[in-house]
Amino acid sequence: MKIGELAKLSGVSTRTIDYYTNCGLLAAERTKTNYRMYPASVLQTIERIQILKKQRMSISEIKDVLETNENPQTELLVEEVYEEFDCLQRNITRLEEQLKDAPSHVKIQISKALESKMVAIASLLALL
């Protein structure tokens, strides 16, 4: 698809698509008339870029993430991340239950533990 169509479908400006292409985040083939043609899979890549940008990742960090996901071992890493994510969610649920019945001086400690688990989850999500 041409850049204009990609911009409409993705909700991203043509200028931004050009920028992503020039940075190496998006791949396009050139036609005989020198137009860039993007495969449909680029829509998913743009969506991932937008998500990673919301996590305040730099363009070089985003590029690293996208390149890592092309690696055959990435599926195994993603599975490990999801397992860790599930474990963290179980820990959070347990801590929230403890927080309900805890005395006030213990609630502060539990709240800090919850906060560290949430930070760990955010870090894991940034890897995906």
From TrEMBL:
It comes from the Bacteria. SMART domains: HTH_MERR (SM00422). GO terms for molecular function: DNA binding; DNA-binding transcription factor activity. Gene3D superfamilies: 1.10.1660.10. PROSITE patterns: HTH_MERR_2. Pfam families: MerR_1 (PF13411). This is MerR family transcriptional regulator. It comes from Planococcus glaciei.
